[in-house]
Specification:
Two copies of one chain form a homodimer.
Chain A lengths: L2 H8 L3 H9 L6 E2 L5 E2 L2 H15 L4 H12 L5 H35 L9 H6 L7
Antiparallel strand pairs in A: 1-2
Helix pairs in contact in A: 1-3, 3-4, 4-5
Chain A binds a DNA duplex (30 and 30 nucleotides) through helix 2.
DNA sequence: ATGGGGCTTCCCCCTGCTGGAAGGTCAAGA
DNA sequence: TCTTGACCTTCCAGCAGGGGGAAGCCCCAT
């Protein structure tokens, strides 16, 4: 199977597939003409990677998860640990964004948004202006 | 004033200050020895940039905001527009993260997290396993 | 044989810095 | 005066996670 076929079947773009080979996530064979030669197992792995990435797992997480996916003797505890850590990272990001959002909404609300130059947003960003 | 002083006063690291000069956000003069020569206005601008970046504005947003900050004839409408657009981006990111979080929490909850290999997280990431 | 699509490698681009190497400068202390 | 050591300079490389595009094969249909 060529890269285009596996891209269509897995939903992962050819460029990304080549990149994943570069960093050692998948190891397709080569046909005699130099083309990468994929099989159904590669399609599964790539779809797996696509879904993991869509859930925000880093490439390194994906590497770990893919190894566990392939390991018949894995313990679900190992998988859960990776997912829980990732969940914590997500929660951290959400908190950070929520804090930004709170500050920004407040400033936006206070800003008249008219033709005059006075602006609480600019003022908040300029500590030195608070003394003027 | 040397870069170290302005870094301490503005809270922006020297490396970042040099980068901001590179991309044209600030334009310090040069002393005879080749050292960058900053004044108080640079400290203000850098502090402004630091706060804008902390609120998640992109560098391009910062460029715009800095221009408005310096423009005595700005209209607060212009500032507000930039902030509102950024607010929308933040809300989008939060939504995306919340969706990931929902999916992940559910999977984590369903995973036994013991020594057995069966794992709903792996199963969810592997569409082909649902037919087995 | 020719045209079009696919495949290959290669290198640069993106965001927003950060680290490090190699070298110049400057002020203080022995 | 000399020598540290802390500054400063430029340039180069790299992080994540690919995307865009060039130059050049390959293969199939007409």
């Amino acid at each position: 199977m060529n890269i285009g076929d596996v891209a269509r079947q897995s939903g992962v773009p050819p460029k990304t597939i080549r990149y994943y080979e570069d960093i050692g996530l998948i190891r397709p064979k080569r046909a005699e003409n130099g083309y990468r030669d994929f099989n159904q197992s590669h399609v599964h792995k790539l779809a797996f990677l696509g879904r993991a990435r869509a859930l925000g797992f880093t490439i390194e997480d994906c590497r770990t998860l893919l190894a566990l996916y392939e390991d018949e003797n894995r313990e679900s505890l190992q998988v859960k640990a990776v997912a829980e850590e990732h969940l914590r990272q997500i929660e951290e990001k959400i908190e950070k964004l929520r804090s930004m959002k709170a500050t920004l909404s407040e400033l936006v609300d206070k800003c008249a948004g008219d033709h005059r130059p006075d602006c609480p947003i600019i003022a908040d960003l300029s500590p030195e202006l608070s003394y003027k």
